[in-house]
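Progress against Task 2.4 (sequence-to-structure conversion) is shown through the following example record, which the project officer requested during the mid-term review.
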Amino acid sequence: MYFLWAMMLGWCLGVPSLLGQTPDPVALLERVKARHQLVHDFKAEVAIDVDVDFLRLPVKTAQVFYQQPDRWKFKAKGFLMLPKTGVQFSVAAYLKEPFSAFYVTSTAIDQVLVDVVKIIPLATAHELVLATLWIDRETALLRRIEVHTRSAGTYQVHFVYGDAPFGLPVQTAITFEINRTQLPLKYLGRFQIDPQKLGDKAQGTVTLTYTQFRVNEGIDEAVFRETDTSVSE
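Structure tokens generated for the chain above:
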């Protein structure tokens, strides 16, 4: 009887520690990375909707090309206005160099349980200062990221998923700060600028909606060597 009670007491004392066990952040990131590695390349049609306080721009259509580990190309007639960072949704961009990872908490986004992990590069001069990733616990898909950089400020990306192959997002919304002085002068004449909202800084959102994915069919290397026509903040 004493042995039985000892076993029950030991089990009861062990339950809280088991329930409160913190997930391994590196293991969570490896799950995300493994999911992304299923996509060697893709191309898709994309509609780009730019919403900036002092700018009025029509929705632009383009083609997007991706190739592992983190090569991206947008092609459109005329010019595109895209943030320099944030259009990528591969976790490889944040794991290129040695880093420390910390588990923060679990929460819900869009009624989905997610684990929150922070990444800090070990190199003090790294462009990335801090990245926070909200990772879908069931599917290992990214639901949201927030990134602090040295030269491009802070931006957030929210991911929406649908019926795209390999769990690719059907929409990404990138929120960032833009300074009007960051717009190249040669392009200012093409923008419809609202002078009443023109200030030193403004918040902007670029929403990219993807359709007609073609995945793992190979992409000609020449595509990535073509001249870029995008305007980056």
